[in-house]
Design a protein that fits this description.
The longest helix is centred in the last third of the chain and has 14 residues. The protein has a 6-stranded mixed beta sheet with strand order 6-7-8-3-9-10, sandwiched between helices. It has a 4-stranded antiparallel beta sheet with strand order 2-1-4-5, covered by helices on one side. It is α/β, with parallel strands linked by helices. It is globular, with a radius of gyration of 19 Å. Helix 3 packs parallel to helix 6.
C-alpha cells in the first residue's frame, strides 16, 4: 500500500529528491525497530495575512502511529493539521514559513504537486460530508479522478471493509449515501479516503458530531487500521486522546493584548501515556486534569 517511489511534481522532481518509503521487511518485528519518521516539522509558522496563527512548531510524526493534537479552541490545531496535506494552500491569504519534510522531501518545495500530496495524505473532516451520490460512487470517485487502475468493485469492497462498513451496506451500494446514519457517513468518508491508497490519514475532530456508540466504532477502526496507516487526529476529547493515540501534542494560545488575537504554540510533544501521567510542563498538566481550557 505504500505510495510509489517519488512525489509527482508539476514538471518532475529532481532525482535527488526521490522517495524511498518501502515498508520494513516482514521478517523483522515492528517492536524491534526504531519508529520511522513520516513528517519532520521544523520551526513552522502559519500566517493568514499579517496574523500569525501558529509559530515555531517542531515535531516528528512517525509511521504506523496515531498522533493526537489537543489544546483549547483557537490554539492552531486544525491550522497545523491542514499543513500536512497543504489544505492551507486553498486560502488565498495563508502563508507557511519553516518546513515540513515528508520522507525527506519538503512538502512546500515549489516543484511538489499539492494534488499528489493530498492523494498520499487523506483527510476526514469534523462533519461527515458524503457526496450526494450512491455509496458505491462515493468510494469510486477518488480513484477515478486519480486515474487509479484496477477493479472498481474490488476497490469499493476493500475500502468499505477497512472502514468496518461493508457488512452494513453491501446490499445497498447503489443507495444514496445521504441515507446513512451519521456514524455510518463518517466511516464512509474514511473509506472514501482509503480508496486512493494514502499513507497518512488526517482526522479533524472526526467524532465531535457523533454519539458515544458511533464514536466507539470510529476509535476501534483507528486502532484496527493504524498497522497500515499513519494517523493524525485533532480532538477536544481528552479521554479519546488517551485511549487511541500513541503520541500526543499539547498546544496553547498566546493572546495579544493589543489586537486580542491568539497565536498557537506547541507546549509539549511526547508519548501519550507520559503526557497524561507525568507531563513535563505545568500547562499540560493543568489542561489534561481540567484545571483550565
Amino acid at each position: 500500500m505504500p505510495p510509489d517511489s517519488k512525489l509527482k511534481a508539476k514538471k518532475g522532481i529532481p532525482t535527488a529528491q526521490r522517495l524511498d518509503i518501502s515498508r520494513s521487511p516482514s521478517d523483522v518485528s515492528l517492536t524491534e525497530q526504531e519508529p520511522v519518521p513520516v513528517f519532520e516539522v521544523d520551526d513552522l509558522s502559519v500566517y493568514y495575512g499579517a496574523f500569525r496563527a501558529i509559530r515555531n512548531v517542531g515535531m516528528t510524526v512517525c509511521e504506523r502511529q496515531i498522533t493526537s493534537f489537543i489544546g483549547p479552541s483557537g490554539c492552531g490545531k486544525t491550522t497545523l493539521l491542514r499543513c500536512f496535506n497543504r489544505m492551507n494552500d486553498l486560502v488565498d491569504i495563508a502563508r507557511v514559513e519553516g518546513s515540513i519534510l515528508y520522507h525527506g522531501i519538503n512538502l512546500y518545495h515549489p516543484e511538489v504537486n499539492a494534488v499528489e500530496v493530498r492523494r498520499r495524505v487523506g483527510m476526514v473532516f469534523q462533519k461527515p460530508n458524503p457526496f450526494p451520490k450512491s455509496i458505491y460512487d462515493n468510494i469510486t470517485f477518488g480513484p477515478k479522478i486519480a486515474g487509479l487502475k484496477g477493479d472498481m468493485d474490488e476497490i469499493v469492497e476493500r475500502s468499505l471493509r477497512r472502514a468496518a462498513l461493508w457488512d452494513e451496506v453491501k446490499d445497498r451500494l447503489k443507495d444514496s449515501a445521504m441515507g446513512l446514519s451519521g456514524g455510518q457517513q463518517q466511516r464512509l468518508c474514511i473509506a472514501r479516503a482509503l480508496a486512493v491508497n494514502p499513507e497518512v490519514i488526517l482526522m479533524d475532530e472526526p467524532c465531535s458530531a457523533l454519539d458515544p456508540i458511533a464514536t466507539g466504532r470510529i476509535e476501534d477502526l483507528m486502532e484496527e487500521i493504524k498497522s497500515e496507516y499513519t494517523i493524525i487526529i485533532v480532538t477536544h476529547n481528552m479521554q479519546q486522546a488517551a485511549r487511541v493515540s500513541d503520541m500526543c501534542a499539547f498546544f496553547t494560545a498566546e493572546v495579544n493584548e493589543t489586537s486580542d488575537t491568539r497565536t498557537g504554540i506547541l507546549v509539549e510533544f511526547d508519548k501519550t501515556e507520559k503526557m497524561f501521567s507525568n507531563p513535563a510542563d505545568e500547562r499540560t498538566e493543568n489542561y489534561v486534569t481540567g484545571r483550565f481550557g
